[in-house]
């Protein structure tokens, strides 16, 4: 799929370049578990989307890398689309 084909509340596979990575921050889940999260920008030839990275995936990503989010979960937050690996997806670094 291409970035411009992604829709909220669906799974999708998209490949693109990481153009920016924000610093990681710590969050506490509703179950009281501490986790790290960071946002990155994933761009292909049709647009860009926020890639939410969790825990160990944060340390794997650098600006300029080509990555594929395989079977990622697409959501909408504050009017912007986001994709993450969710429960069933995976991050593949090219």
In short:
The chain contains 1 helix and 7 strands, in the order ββββαβββ. By secondary structure, the protein is mainly beta. The radius of gyration is 12 Å and the shape is globular.
Give your account of this protein's structure.
By secondary structure, the chain is mainly beta. The protein has a single domain, classed as Nucleic acid-binding proteins (OB fold (Dihydrolipoamide Acetyltransferase, E2P)). 5% of the residues lie in helices and 60% in strands. It has 1 helix and 7 strands, in the order E-E-E-E-H-E-E-E. Strands 1-3-4-6-5 form a 5-stranded mixed beta barrel. The mean pLDDT is 95.
Walk me through the topology.
Layout: E1 10-21, E2 25-28, E3 34-44, E4 47-54, H1 56-60, E5 66-77, E6 80-84, E7 90-93
Parallel strand pairs: 4-6
Antiparallel strand pairs: 1-3, 1-5, 2-3, 3-4, 5-6, 5-7
N-to-C order of helices and strands: EEEEHEEE
What is the count of β-strands?
7
- Work out the strand percent: over 45%
Kindly provide the name of the CATH class. Mainly Beta
What would the keywords be for this entry?
7 strands, mainly beta, globular, OB fold (Dihydrolipoamide Acetyltransferase, E2P), 94 residues
């Amino acid at each position: 799929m291409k970035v411009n084909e992604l829709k909220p509340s669906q799974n999708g596979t998209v490949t693109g370049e990481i153009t920016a990575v924000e610093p990681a921050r710590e969050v506490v889940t509703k179950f009281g578990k501490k986790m790290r999260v960071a946002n990155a920008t994933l761009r292909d030839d049709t647009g860009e989307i926020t890639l939410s990275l969790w825990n160990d995936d944060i340390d794997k990503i650098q600006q300029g890398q080509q990555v594929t989010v395989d079977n990622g979960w697409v959501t909408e937050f504050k009017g912007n689309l986001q994709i993450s690996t969710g429960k069933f997806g995976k991050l593949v670094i090219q």
